[in-house]
Design goal:
3 helices; alpha+beta; 77 residues; binds zinc ion
């Protein structure tokens, strides 16, 4: 299995953060949503370019991507 470059990993975490941004259909109140989810801020040409959210939310999204990586690579070494 080829070693994934940090650039690829960065792109995948960025994509996961975009995916985790609330599209306004979560059903939570604005306050609950803001506390638990990433909020989209700026769109450029249909691409989400800026987001807002609690550091813990970003950490969870990044950790989820890393976890998938670990599993895909055969678990912790
Ligand atoms: Zn929401």
């Amino acid at each position: 299995m080829p070693t994934e470059s940090s650039t690829d990993l960065t792109a995948r975490i960025a994509a996961a953060i975009r995916d985790a941004a609330c599209a306004g259909d979560c059903g939570d109140t604005e306050e609950e949503c803001a506390a638990q989810r990433i909020q989209p801020c700026v769109w450029q040409g249909g691409v989400l370019t800026e987001v807002l959210g609690a550091p813990e939310v970003f950490a969870k999204v990044a950790a989820a991507v890393m976890q998938v990586d670990v599993l895909a690579n055969g678990g912790p070494r």
